[in-house]
Inverse folding.
């Protein structure tokens, strides 16, 4: 992969306009306009510090760390079931540099990756172009306001993303996931558990939510972490027709969530 400093793309407020793009039929014009306004409001408001930290992190990366080329085992393990159930169109929520979006597109799925960081999406776009992944499209937006049509995705995956927020934003995110999933669509994700050794560290923001220092590639910044009990995860998924919540086999301080609309 070439140095990240060589990336060149044009970014709009709510979506990437160069190269891989969601066809316009996948967007609601009204929702797109609303997303522009709400994204701007949120970046200027309460979530600006956290989202800005990740943007700065990705913007200053000189090469992609090896850990971003490894795929979460619970996503890899789910792929045979996805294919057996005829899943074709998948959203990767909080795709970051694109590792799972690339993995899914490489495996034959139509994929839309969304992230709030335009620099992360630059990296994902370059990676997708390297591998000629025409089935991967990228959109810049927040997870609480997704500018895509109702009931269009067969599955939504999210790896270590949803719990980096306050409770209200997490609830809004789950509502958005439910909205864009088709009937019988699948939501697959991991959520931080109160069993996590980091629970209680840092500054408490609200119940079970803490702002703590993260360190990646010698870069340090504060990030929100919300930690869940199994009961609270089940309550969060109450709108889904089915939900299975279990501790991840490989990382038992995370909940693995599999929910069906």
């Amino acid at each position: 992969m070439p140095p990240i400093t060589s990336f060149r793309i044009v970014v709009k407020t709510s979506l990437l306009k160069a190269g891989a793009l969601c066809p316009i039929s996948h967007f609601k014009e009204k929702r797109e306009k609303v997303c522009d306004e709400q994204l701007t409001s949120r970046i200027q408001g309460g979530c600006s510090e956290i989202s800005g930290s990740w943007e700065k992190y990705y913007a200053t990366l000189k090469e992609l760390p090896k850990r971003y080329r490894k795929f979460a085992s619970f996503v890899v393990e789910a792929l045979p079931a996805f294919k057996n159930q005829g899943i074709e169109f998948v959203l990767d929520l909080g795709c970051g540099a694109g590792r799972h979006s690339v993995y899914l597109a490489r495996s034959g799925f139509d994929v839309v990756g969304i992230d709030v960081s335009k620099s992360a999406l630059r990296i994902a776009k370059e990676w997708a172009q390297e591998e000629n992944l025409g089935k991967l499209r990228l959109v810049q937006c927040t997870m609480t306001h997704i500018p895509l049509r109702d009931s269009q995705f067969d599955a939504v995956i999210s790896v270590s993303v949803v719990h980096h927020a306050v409770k209200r934003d997490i609830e809004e995110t789950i509502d958005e996931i439910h909205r864009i999933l088709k009937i019988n669509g699948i939501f697959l994700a991991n959520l931080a558990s109160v069993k996590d050794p980091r629970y209680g560290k840092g500054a408490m923001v609200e119940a079970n939510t803490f702002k703590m220092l993260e360190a990646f590639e010698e870069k340090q910044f504060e990030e929100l972490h919300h930690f869940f009990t199994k009961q609270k995860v089940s309550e969060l998924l109450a709108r889904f027709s089915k939900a299975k919540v279990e501790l991840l086999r490989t990382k038992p301080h995370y909940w693995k969530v599999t929910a069906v609309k």
Q: What stands out?
A: The chain has one domain: 8-194+232-260. Helices lie at 29-44, 48-59, 73-84, 99-106, 118-130, 167-180, 230-236. The mean pLDDT is 83.
